[in-house]
Amino acid sequence: MPKLSYQVIIEMTNGGADYCFECVGLATLVQGRGWGKTIVLGLDKPDAQLNLSSFEVLQSQKTLTGSFFGGLKPKSDVPILVKRYLDKELELDKFVTHEVNFEDINKAFDLLIQGKSLHCVIWMDK
């Protein structure tokens, strides 16, 4: 029987991690024994449920926090970021290392896997 994700973490860290970041969007990765703070970044299916024992939360003093867009508030923060970009205060262009057409999307994944790409723009209309 394969080990559950939290079992692997407990073995790797000799007991558990103080901070965990769930980035892939699987609610099941948040469940399990342990302590410390877990920050959920990945987005699972809309109907995905977390199942935590209240005893486990109290006993382990586990903290669970979600962070959607890093706490960005789209309605108020995006216009500010756009203005800062247009005013050249926020230099995002230098972070784009590659651009590919949609039909070359696999090249973008290859560059990412090889560690050669920071951010790749995929053009849909070229």
TrEMBL record:
Looking up InterPro entries in the UniProt record yields: GroES-like_sf, NAD(P)-bd_dom_sf
User: GO BP, one example?
Assistant: formaldehyde catabolic process
Gene Ontology terms: cellular component: cytosol
Q: Which GO terms describe its molecular function?
A: S-(hydroxymethyl)glutathione dehydrogenase [NAD(P)+] activity; zinc ion binding
Highest taxon of the lineage: Eukaryota
Ordered alphabetically, the record's keywords are: Metal-binding, Zinc
Reply yes or no: does the keyword rRNA-binding apply: no
Q: What is this protein called?
A: Alcohol dehydrogenase-like C-terminal domain-containing protein
